[in-house]
Give the backbone structure.
Amino acid sequence: MNLVVGATACNNRRDPVRFLQFCLGKAAHLFLYGMYGLSLVRALGGSGLVGARGLGLAALLVVLVAALDEHNQARIAGRSGRPEDVALDFAGFFGFLWPYGPLGALLRGTPPKFGG
């Protein structure tokens, strides 16, 4: 399998270690930004920002931190900062938010509650 992101190509047959490192790195980003976003939602909910305002601010902060992280990576030799990675980080936030909010509410049998 060839996996191409930006100018980087990883082939799982030619270099399985690099391919695994690449996949684990992306999975780590999904997990960390998902947890970061949920932490923001909970913290903002505890300070009174619940619902769409809290979610919007949390989403904005996730995108801002991800963009700053990519900007920093672009300045380091041997690294690259790509807009696709910002989108991936935001997807991690959204991916963790879905089970926490609407899906969790459906399983609990209550209306969705974000924050506090």
Observations:
- The chain has one domain: 27-108.
- The first strand starts at residue 2 and ends at 5.
- The chain is about 70% helix and 5% strand.
